[in-house]
Amino acid sequence: MIDHTILKEVRNFLSRHDADYRKLVDLVREAAEEVQTKLGREVVHDIYSRGKHGGPETKDPIKIAIKLGRKRTTDREFRVEKINDIVGLTVSVLYHEYVSTVVDNLCNALAARSITTEHPSIKAGSGYYATHIDCTAQGGAYDDFMCEIQVKTLLHSAWGVKTHDLTYKPQGYHDHGLNEMSRSIGDI
User: Fold this and answer.
1) d(Cα 126, Cα 128) in Å, to the nearest integer?
2) Reduced to 3 DSSP states, what percent helix, strand and coil does the chain have, rounded to the nearest 5?
3) The whole model's pTM is what?
4) Which residues lie across from 123 on neighbouring strands?
5) 55 in Cβ contact with 83 (< 8 Å)
6) Among 108, 102, 101, 72, which residue's Cα sits nearest to residue 90?
7) CA separation for the pair 52, 64 (Å, rounded)
8) pLDDT number for residue 139
9) Which one, of 130, 133, 100, 98, lies nearest residue 117 by Cα?
10) Which of the residues in the chain have pLDDT under 70?
11) Cβ neighbours of residue 140 under 8 Å, at least 6 residues apart?
12) In the beta sheet, which residues pair with residue 125?
């Protein structure tokens, strides 16, 4: 259930800071493109964000409000800008063995832009697999704002896109057998 007070807070926050988040994701994209140029397209195949098809760069306000509400059940003072994935970037690599090299280069390129990174973590489950890097801007209009980078193989990226609408957020009838089969294939 959505707390409408929190949703209003999120919408107000985004209306004030949408341009700042766009600047932040552009700065993170610039670092990723630098890594792509350095390592080549045979290593870093693609870089994209939520806005890749002309849509908004930020996560849907309702999803942000739900996440914020959950966070505030344990920390009443939790701030909107501490949500790590209001904006994000996906970096797809051709092969799994390239992930650690790309992550190391990305962290260095981000540090040069006054963006700190948390220790990368692997997120896996239900057929999903990616290395996540949480980034925090230091200074500027977007000081303390966060961006999430997902580094995944081209195959995991394509699989995630394909199964997202079928099993993660299906429209209409949901076949649980399809969900289990998709998870099993993704885990392999």
Assistant:
1) 6
2) 50, 20, 25
3) 0.85
4) 130
5) no
6) 102
7) 20
8) 85
9) 133
10) 126, 161-188
11) 23, 114
12) 128
